[in-house]
Amino acid sequence: MNFTCNRETIQKCIMSAERVTGKNSSLPILNSVLITTNKNSLIIRATNLEVGVEFQIPAEIKKEGSVAVSGSLFSNILSNIPDEEIITVSVIDNVCKIITKTKNITVKGLISDDFPTIPIITSNESFTIQSQLFIQGVKSVIMSSAISDVKPEISSVYIYQKEKSLFFVATDSFRLAEKKIKYEGDKISHGVIIPFKNIIEIVKIFEPLNENILIKITKTQISCVSKSVYITSRVIQGVYPDYEQILPKNNTTEVVMLKQDLINTLKLSTLFSDKFNKIQFIINPQQKKCSINTKNSDIGETEANLTVTMSGEPIEISLNGKHLFDCLNVVNEDSIVIQFNGSNKPAVIRGLGDQSFTYLTMPLTK
Question: Which residues form the DNA polymerase III beta sliding clamp central domain (predicted)?
Answer without folding.
Answer: 129-242
